[in-house]
Amino acid sequence: MRYITNEGQAWFEEAHYKIKSQYKIAHTTPVGLYIKAYLWSRGDLDNLLKALQDALQKAGVIENDSLVHYLQIERIKVDKKDQKIEIEIKDLKKISE
Q1: What is the pLDDT of residues 12-53, one digit of tens each?
Q2: Is 60 left (phi over 0), alpha (psi -120 to 50) or beta?
Q3: Distance between CA 35 and CA 43 in Å, rounded?
Q4: Whether residue 95 has pLDDT greater than 90
Q5: Is the pTM of this model over 0.85?
Q6: In the beta sheet, which residues pair with residue 54?
């Protein structure tokens, strides 16, 4: 079991709310995630990536994070007030057909 700080829990809840309000499709087939992380710090992208996948799954956007078959993540340094994360989800099954 992972320990999540109060700050981490608040981030997760806010991310869940924002994701759920923006994505209406529940992906049940393999997807690709294309992520642009506009961040002020040099934090660990691996931890951010896992948190984003967990939030997408909890919000019902992807059925299971094991459906993520392709990942592309880019960190872009910005001022702290300008932080944001952009996620594009592509259905890989539709691309291959």
Answers
A1: 778 777 777 777 778 999 999 999 999 998 888 988 899 889
A2: left
A3: 15
A4: no
A5: no
A6: none
CB-facing half-sphere around the CA of 3: CA atoms within 13 A:
1
Query: Quick one: tokens of 13?
Result: 């809840």
Give dist(CA 93, CA 29) in Å, integer: 7
Report the chain's mean pLDDT, rounded to a whole number: 86
- Say yes or no to pLDDT of 3 above 60: yes
Distance CA 57, CA 16 (A): 9
15-47: b (≥16 Cβ within 10 Å) or e: bbeebeeebeeebeebbebebebebeeeeeeee
- Kindly report the length of the chain: 97
Instruction: Provide DSSP, 15-42.
Output: HHHHHHHH----B-S-EEEEEEEEESS-
H helical segments located in the chain: 6-22, 45-58, 92-96
